[in-house]
Amino acid sequence: MKNAYVTSDHHGDNGTVREGMILGDMTQKRFDELEKLGLVREATAAEVEKGYEPKIDNDPTKAEGQKQAEAPANKKAATPANKAA
Question: What is the rounded distance in angstroms from the CA atom of residue 24 to the CA atom of residue 7?
Answer without folding.
Answer: 14
